[in-house]
Amino acid sequence: MFYNKMTMKNYSKFSLFLFNLDIKIFEYINYVFLCVQNILFVIHYYSKTPIENKDKNQKFLDNLIISIIHMVFIIFVLSVWFIYKFKLQYKHQIMKIYKERFIFSKGGEKSNEVLIDNEEELINKVGSKLTLTQKIILIIYYTILINREVNILVFTFIFTGIYLYYPNCIFLSFPLLFIANLNNILFGIVYSLVLRIKQLLFVLIFMYLIVYLFTWFSFYYFPELFEFSGLYNVKLDDTTTEKLCSSMFQCYLTMLSYGVRSGGGIGDIIPMISYKVNPGYFIAGFFYVVLFHMFVVWIMINLFFGIIVDTFAALREQTYQFEEDKNNTCYICQITRDVALNNNINFDHHVNNIHCIWNYVNFIAYLHINNERNFKSLETFIWGKIPKNDTSWLPIGKKFCQPENENYNE
């Protein structure tokens, strides 16, 4: 528990309501604001020709009014969160990141070293050791930016503020991507990318190095294959003919742009080579195109997507196992639905009445709220176990935890 007894006693009913309020409701309201803003942008530009420079930063009164109301709404929600939940989240991150790093010794004997299980003691020790930079990183990055409760609100606040200062509808389009934060399926896809970001980056780097190697072959031996007509010229607003391998840098960008994203590799854009005119050149071009297609398109790109698919499948399997355990295992005594069925125990009645988890949660809250001087002997015994994360007081796998009509043997 990250709250003390005095804190809970001093909370008013309204404060407790705000403390327990699900902030996801405000995230949905925030997303409605964003959708309304973007719908208005589409309506404003619906009948217009392609936007010229003078129209890109055009101000619309309705969007500006909604943006101001939106900003006030976000400030209110973030203020409530900072007052009632920020400290809780900050302590949670300390416990999550630093708990296993701090140990203390009882009696100076190495064999008696144990983890710090008391959160207040841990937080005090960590607070005295953290530098200002570490505290800033802990607060800004861990507690706010990657916190699913508020990060969508924080980023929306930033982009809306930029829009009010520099009115460009693009800035209010970016936060729409945070719909992934509101949907577990989309979040799982994004999380699969983040979870394997190092592997994906190394695969990309290795693929770019392979393309770099093939670029030298293009630049030295096949530059004439990269002369194309019909290329758009921005200055002349007309098409032109140009060699796309006139320099090494240009050749590399051409290979990345057209070779990697083409379904058949670089062979999709270069012209067909005559075999009768120059058989040796044809054979060299054949191996050049086939090897590029094999290493870049078949292996590297499929390896990149394979990592994403495998990670997503592993996360889905993990979620399935979690749901399976939640629905078919008693959280208190660990009896499974199959064991209960084999011993003539009504499993649903068991988890909802005999070992209802909320009864245990309410009991722990009761111990935190009340004065320990008024505890009975059993309550005092359990109260001594809780700060140490000792679960030996729970009837885990114990036969006596069942009523007479629910006896079972494990």
Keyword list:
two-stranded antiparallel sheet, disordered N terminus, disordered C terminus, mainly alpha, 410 residues, 4 strands, 16 helices
Structure, briefly:
The chain is mainly alpha-helical.
Order of helices and strands: HHHHHEEHHHHHEEHHHHHH
Instruction: Count every helix, treating DSSP H or I runs of 4 or more residues as helices.
Output: 16
Average residue pLDDT: 78
Cα distance spanning the termini: 32 Å
Percent in strands: under 5%
CA-based shape = extended
Structural class based on helices, strands and sheet pairing: mainly alpha
- Please give the domain count: 3
Main β-sheet, in a few words? 2 strands, antiparallel
Q: What is the number of beta strands?
A: 4
Describe what this molecule looks like in 3D.
The chain is mainly α and 410 residues long. It folds into three domains: 5-181, no CATH class; 199-309, no CATH class; 337-406, no CATH class. 60% of the residues lie in helices and 4% in strands. The strands form two sheets. The chain has a two-stranded antiparallel ribbon. A hairpin with a 4-residue loop joins strand 3 and strand 4 (238-243). Helix 4 (61-84) packs antiparallel against helix 8, helix 5 (86-98) crosses helix 6 (119-129) and helix 9 packs across helix 12 (279-328). The longest helix is centred in the C-terminal third of the chain and has 50 residues, at 279-328. The radius of gyration is 31 Å and the shape is extended. The protein starts with a helix and ends in a 25-residue tail after the last helix.
